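stage 2 :: seqdesign
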């Protein structure tokens, strides 16, 4: 099983809609910056509490950006039925989400119980342009994965753009996602993400009581480590292993290692309609180091060492970026300084964005707020996070230099190769088959919905 491309996702979704015309609907929710369709696949609610038979009609518009002005105001009570929105492909380098979305849609057709009174909607690829630039449908190693690596800078990521840009500069992918949330008012939004190497974890904008048990059971059955000290969730409340709740505003941990304000992202847009967002992470390669709960003997010493290594690695990439010279700077059009390869400009924007993040991160690791106590899993997660930052920047820069036949390319190629080999060896990287990644994400999405509904019933909200 390979990771599907945006085009393959669209074709598969069209076939599913043709096979089940009374239950499944495919429509275009928007258009990317490069003119690609952004597809939404909807599976109808069945008769149940608050539900009705028949396909969900969500307006019939060709582009949800055109309907943004018709959405209800913040805090409007939801209607009798429920809706779930599953977002795939928000990060171009995390392609498992599209496969999971299709798998979930098929599963809901086979077993319609979760559709009782609830429509399910799948944004198949939130960033099709970015996905086209990340060219590794079936990576055989970390090196193979990084040969075609691409992850856009924060302002170009659909979910993060609202935390970094003013409203009048949001990309069309973000506008399509926001309009879809406004239209559906989902009780649950699930964003499907992945990590290159590590374990699985879930981030929540609000706690979903009881989710840790089915999540942990699925991970254990599928031999996927649970990431107990995820660097993305440093210091966040954790109601169970691998489950992290984003802190409330004002918490010192709220923005740990993030240049963005998480609460301005599209994850929190669902809160306008009393919805909850779950971010489900699954690894491509597993490492047992990230679920070691033993206390680390010297967390601050380890963080100082990791910060020094990250700064040194970033300096190597930065030097390669400078050696690339003026001809490797983005140009306005044909002529000197312009690129023949259209991928070069977005790749270099991503390189520069990544390198600019690193000084802030190393300062946090060595600052007064560095933890005096931490688990071995947490330090391992920080170790992996630092390695991937410099490696990603180097890999994207290498793509540009190789395409141009630049004399700096061979040296950078050796650096990327060595870093990939060291990364895999240090963490004992073990490939998780794509089908297994999909199965774990699918189970976690369904468990999140089941536990959320149960919690609503216990409080009288359902």
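stage 2 :: out
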């Amino acid at each position: 099983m390979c990771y599907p491309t945006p085009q393959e996702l669209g074709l598969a979704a069209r076939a599913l809609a043709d096979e089940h015309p009374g239950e499944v609907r495919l429509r275009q929710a928007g258009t990317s910056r490069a003119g690609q369709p952004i597809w939404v696949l909807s599976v109808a609610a069945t008769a149940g509490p608050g539900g009705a038979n028949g396909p969900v009609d969500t307006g019939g518009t060709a582009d949800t950006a055109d309907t943004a002005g018709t959405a209800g105001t913040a805090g409007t009570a939801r209607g009798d039925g429920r809706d779930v929105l599953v977002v795939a492909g928000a990060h171009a380098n995390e392609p498992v989400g599209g496969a999971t979305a299709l798998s979930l849609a098929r599963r809901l057709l086979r077993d319609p119980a979760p559709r009782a009174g609830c429509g399910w909607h799948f944004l198949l690829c939130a960033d099709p342009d970015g996905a086209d630039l990340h060219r590794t449908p079936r990576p055989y190693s970390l090196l193979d994965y990084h040969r075609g690596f691409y992850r856009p800078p924060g302002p170009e990521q659909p979910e993060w753009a609202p935390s970094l840009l003013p409203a009048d500069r949001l990309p069309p992918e973000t506008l399509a996602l926001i309009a879809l949330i406004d239209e559906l008012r989902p009780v649950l939004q699930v964003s499907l993400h992945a990590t290159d190497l590590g374990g699985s974890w879930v981030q929540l904008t609000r706690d979903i009581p009881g989710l840790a048990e089915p999540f942990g059971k699925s991970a254990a059955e599928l031999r996927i480590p649970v990431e107990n000290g995820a660097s993305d969730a440093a210091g966040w409340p954790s109601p169970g292993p691998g489950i992290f709740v984003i802190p409330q505003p004002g918490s010192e941990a709220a923005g740990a290692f993030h240049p963005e304000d998480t609460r301005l992202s599209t994850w929190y847009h669902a809160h306008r309609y009393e919805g909850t967002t779950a971010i489900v992470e699954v690894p491509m390669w597993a490492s047992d180091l990230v679920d070691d709960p033993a206390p680390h003997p010297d967390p601050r010493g380890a963080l100082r060492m990791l910060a020094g290594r990250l700064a040194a690695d970033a300096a190597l990439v930065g030097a390669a970026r400078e050696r690339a010279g003026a001809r490797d700077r983005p140009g306005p059009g044909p002529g000197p300084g312009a690129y023949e390869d259209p991928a070069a400009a977005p790749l270099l924007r991503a390189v520069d964005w990544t390198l600019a993040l690193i000084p802030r991160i190393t300062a946090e690791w060595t600052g007064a707020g560095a933890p005096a106590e931490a688990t071995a899993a947490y330090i391992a997660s920080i170790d992996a996070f630092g390695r991937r930052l410099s490696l990603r920047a180097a890999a994207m820069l290498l793509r540009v230099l190789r395409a141009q036949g630049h004399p700096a390319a061979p040296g950078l190629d050796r650096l990327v190769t060595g870093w990939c080999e060291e990364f895999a060896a240090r963490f004992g990287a073990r490939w998780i088959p794509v089908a297994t990644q999909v199965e774990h994400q699918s189970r976690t999405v369904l468990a999140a919905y089941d536990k959320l509904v149960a919690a609503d019933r216990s409080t009288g909200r359902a």
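stage 3 :: structure notes
- The longest strand covers residues 188-198.
- The two ends are 38 Å apart (CA to CA).
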